[in-house]
Amino acid sequence: MAPSDLPDTPPDTPPAPASTPVAAPPYADAGDVVTDVLGAPWTAETLGLPPDEEGPVVATLVHHPTTHPTGRAVLHVHGFADYFFQVEYAQWWTERGYDFYALDLRKYGRSIRPHQTPTYVADLTDYFAETDLAWSRITERDGHDHVVLSAHSTGGLSMSLWADSRQPEALAGVALNSPWFDLQGAPWMQSAAANRALEVIGRRSPMRELGRDVNGFYARSLHREHDGEWDFDLTWKPVTSFPVRFGWLRAIRQGQARLHAGLSVLAPVLVLSSAATRRPHEMGEDVHTHDIVLDVPQIRQWATAIGPHVTYVAVDGAKHDVVLSRPPVRKVVYTELGRWLGAYVERRTSMVLE
Fold first, then answer.
1. Averaged over 134-148, what is the pLDDT?
2. Can you give the pTM of this predicted structure?
């Protein structure tokens, strides 16, 4: 069981059973709001987007209201081969008076459609369209004037670029969970020659798959049918991930280059990560106590490229998605998140109001 000061999953918002992959809300039309796969009071709103070369495109805005509305909200965006299912994380926010929203981006999770190539975009700015729509619903339609942008891994890169581009007035803070700020692996992979080769292949053969060996250790460390404690849909977050395509990786490297040149996100930023990276060759303790996806030194190196006010915290024993770590580690994560929220986000807002 989780420590008593961790948020408990409320009985009226059960996660999807691990043994049965969940189906998307029966392909709701754009604009439809239905009960989400997480169950009431969670809702899922389909956001219609311009079609691309594969056909119609949608994103999905998931929502859980707080008990006592305060004008505050969180918008969370997932990483690669991922979607929103982190109910405990959402509850931590709703208990503090924040309406919680999560965006399943185009071709991910609730937003995947049969005619689409899962996860694929050719430019990270494509995600600005659904983020703009989600933001307008949260701020203009639902009336929130204090919004924290939360993002994990690849979402941390995309949302940093979006926040820099849009500079939204209601942005109160940015909380990033192991953002993907550089290309992990051997040093030659970050070289100018490698970038040039990727640029050429990604432009000429964008749908070509990059050969890689996925051991599945990370997803296995999370899912309760394997070595973890969490329920999630293995068709939306597969143990062996999704294929990586050269056109998509080209978009990632272009986005990382923009971040490396320096962004100007003016709101307070929190960057959380594990304390260290490991590359295990078998399931074991390292899988559960390190980031086995990204290189932590790269996260630390580029954290201050986001803007002028960045707090970086390395959490000993954390997994890649720090809020899915073991209970004692999650307790530290939430303590650090709460400290940052009180010291910089809510205090800053109070000072502005005064």
1. 97
2. 0.90
